[in-house]
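Lab notebook, design round three. We kept the backbone fixed and only want residue identities now. Task for the bench partner: fill in a sequence for the structure below.
Input structure tokens:
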């Protein structure tokens, strides 16, 4: 059955990938609107299936294997939490994902090239030393953000108020992520525009 699934058309794979990605991103909404209507284990099962389908249809790329390992780890960790407490397991996914991302970014700081440098080298293979320093600083910023996000998500889960958890994990966390992306884009443009003068 798995072999037959892997033979589906490219268009179908992209549709499944996009659908599964949207499902995982909108997970806080699924919990908020479904927690009182659907058993917790069914909601978690839907999340796990979405993650699995996303991995099966993930396009080829430099981080594909890393994403698959991270996704499998997320399923395992959330399942362990859910076995102890289903309600806490429902809230655990954002915490686990942010912790895994923090570990990934932190490890790349200890064992360079960093994640951001690897991304930068896709478009600029001959990244100069100044670019390497810059990408290292950006990686550190994201590491701090993911740690902050994991801790805040944990606090909202411990509080146990579904609306507080949904507000942060479904809105505020994504807003902060978008804000960091926007600020980094502005800083990067200024950095690249002045770099020839610095080197």
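Proposed sequence:
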């Amino acid at each position: 059955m798995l072999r037959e699934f892997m033979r589906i058309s490219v268009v179908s794979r992209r549709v499944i990938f996009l659908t599964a990605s949207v499902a995982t991103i909108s997970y806080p909404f699924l919990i908020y609107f479904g927690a009182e209507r659907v058993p917790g284990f069914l909601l978690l099962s839907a999340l796990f299936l979405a993650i699995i389908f996303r991995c099966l249809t993930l396009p080829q790329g430099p981080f594909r294997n890393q994403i698959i390992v991270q996704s499998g780890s997320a399923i395992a960790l959330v399942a362990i939490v859910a076995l102890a407490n289903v309600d806490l397991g429902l809230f655990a996914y954002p915490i686990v994902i942010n912790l895994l991302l923090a570990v990934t970014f932190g490890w790349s700081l200890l064992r360079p090239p960093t994640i951001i440098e690897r991304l930068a080298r896709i478009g600029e293979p001959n990244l100069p030393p100044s670019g390497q320093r810059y990408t290292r600083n950006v990686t550190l910023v994201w590491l701090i953000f993911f740690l902050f996000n994991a801790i805040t998500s944990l606090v909202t889960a411990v509080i146990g108020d579904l609306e507080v958890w949904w507000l942060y994990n479904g809105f505020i966390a994504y807003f902060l992520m978008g804000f960091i992306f926007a600020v980094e884009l502005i800083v990067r443009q200024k950095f690249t525009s002045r770099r020839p003068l610095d080197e």
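Keep this in mind before ordering anything: The chain has a mean pLDDT of 89.
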